[in-house]
Amino acid sequence: MSGTYQVIARRYRPQQFDELVGQEHIVKTLTNAISSGRIGHAYLFVGPRGTGKTTVARLFAKALNARGGPNISPEEDEIGRSIMNGTCMDVVEIDGASNRSIEEIRKIREDCQYVPSQCTYKIYIIDEVHSLTTEAFNALLKTLEEPPPHVKFIFATTEAHKVLGTITSRCQRFEFRPISEDLIAGHLGKIAAKEKISASPDALKAIARLANGGMRDAESILDQMISFCGREIKTEDVIGVYGLVSESQIKELLGKMANADYSGVIETIDSLVENGCDLFRALCDMQAAVRLAMVDAFKSGSAEFGGKKLTGEQLMRMLDVLQGAERGIKNGLSEKANFEVALLKAVEQSRARAINTLIRELDKLSAAPAETQKKNS
């Protein structure tokens, strides 16, 4: 071998703020803080996995420790590279899940007293900070209240509700959002072009769907698809490897549900199971499709599936059943049986609403002659 292979997620990790995809609101706030010199002593990055929390933490640390003072576009040098690689002695990355005890935090408190050896600031990046024990959090409080001027803290978590309020209140909080499928697909397309990989737009969109808003997951999936497919990635390859249900199949299934075609729904589910499709993933995709249709229906009056128009209220009832079925499908004894029951219940709920609406309209019509008679008398 000519060298050790480096995965796409690492090879294409942003090295400057302007290379980051998504999270523009966070980049703008941090770069403005650097430019104006209004730099806090503690930051809390909150958001789903793979949305850029650690990358932004490293970029921020790199910018603060730029040669000549904080700079939003620092020149590439040895210190900057070591920060981005996670090997800088003055930018310490700690896994909160593995180093959660009060002893670990006491070590940090003692180490804080020493000035950085290479950089302007000594920066502690604590990932999964919610995993720290209560005692460890309390040990950290004093340092957060009166930190040395050369020390900065960046905490990252996927579960902000588990972080003590006394910690949160001493930090500037930044919310990392799931990255949109379009942005992910566009970024993957650029990577594929650089790697000289032919990937269809639909294949990239399918990968983006699987990533659930996480760029790192999307890049890892692309890496795996390149290993599986070679130089050409097609939509059917992604669907086959990951058990995805295609958009056309989702539309077909929702069309049968809208038309109350019970036997057709069962037949389609049988086909999905035979082809090894992930039913939980199919449920999530159906939820997304019904939600979009519901929003459109409330704006325009109705949405159409399989030639059948459904009102916003009908779609809302259908969506409510689909959302309520998540736990049963994920943890139940029979994924297929629970999926079938959920879809059939969703059909029933959408129809029940339509019948109730019809009854009210008939009641109004039957009441109209009586009111007319009263007025005439």
Can you name the CATH architecture of the largest domain?
3-Layer(aba) Sandwich
Low-pLDDT runs? none
H/E element order: HHEHHEHEHEHEHEHHEHHHHEEHHH
> What share of residues are in beta strands?
5-15%
What's the number of extended β-strand segments? 9
Principal-axis shape equals elongated
What is the CATH homology-level superfamily of the largest domain?
P-loop containing nucleotide triphosphate hydrolases
CATH class of the largest domain: Alpha Beta
Average pLDDT confidence is: 90
SSE-based structural type: alpha/beta
User: Main β-sheet: number of strands, strand sense, barrel status?
Assistant: 5 strands, parallel
Q: Tell me the span between the first and last alpha carbons.
A: 99 Å
What is the CA-based Rg, rounded? 27 Å
Number of helices: 17
Please, how many domains? 3
What fraction, in percent, of the residue positions are helical? 55-70%
**Would you give the CATH topology of the largest domain?**
Rossmann fold
Give the strand order of the largest sheet, numbering strands 1, 2, ... along the chain.
2-3-4-1-5
